[in-house]
Amino acid sequence: MLPPRRCQKCSVFDVPDSKVDRLTKVPLFAAVSKHDLEFVASRVDEVSLKPGQTLITEGQPTEAFFILESGHVQVTRGGKSVAQLGPGEFFGEIGMLDRGPATATVVTDGPVEAMVLSHTQFRDAIKANDNLALQVIAAMAKRLRADGST
User: Fold this and answer.
1) Between 83 and which of 66, 75, 77, 114 could a Cys-Cys bridge form, CB atoms 3.0 to 4.6 Å apart?
2) DSSP character for 101?
3) pTM (2 decimals)?
C-alpha cells in the first residue's frame, strides 16, 4: 500500500502566520479572534531598535504604538524611572487614543524587537475590532490606576 499523497496545492490559510502567532501571546490580544488578529497583523510593522533609542518623549506627540517582542525599555516620567517593560508589553496607546502629548519617555535598554502601529494603522485596527478597543482601554485604565491616578 502506498503512503497517502500530500496535496500539491495548499491554501495560504493553511500556513501559520508568524505575526499572528506572536500577537496571540500578547495579553492585550487575548480576547481578539484569529480573524481580527490577522487584520492587525496585516497592518503592523516589525522593527529592530538599537540600545539607548528614544521611542517616545514625554510632552511630545506620540507617533506610534509599540508591542515589545524581545528586549526591554525604560519608562520615565519627570526624569524618574517608573517602569521597565519587556516582551509582550506595550506602550504608546494613550497618545494613539487622544492624540495628546506623551505622558512618559520611553527608551530602549538594549537591543529591542518590536511590532509597531502608526496612528492610522492603530485607528484602523481599533475601529475594526470592538474587543481590541475594549482591551486597550482596560489596559490603559489598569496602567493609570497602577500609576496612582484615579
Assistant:
1) 75
2) B
3) 0.77
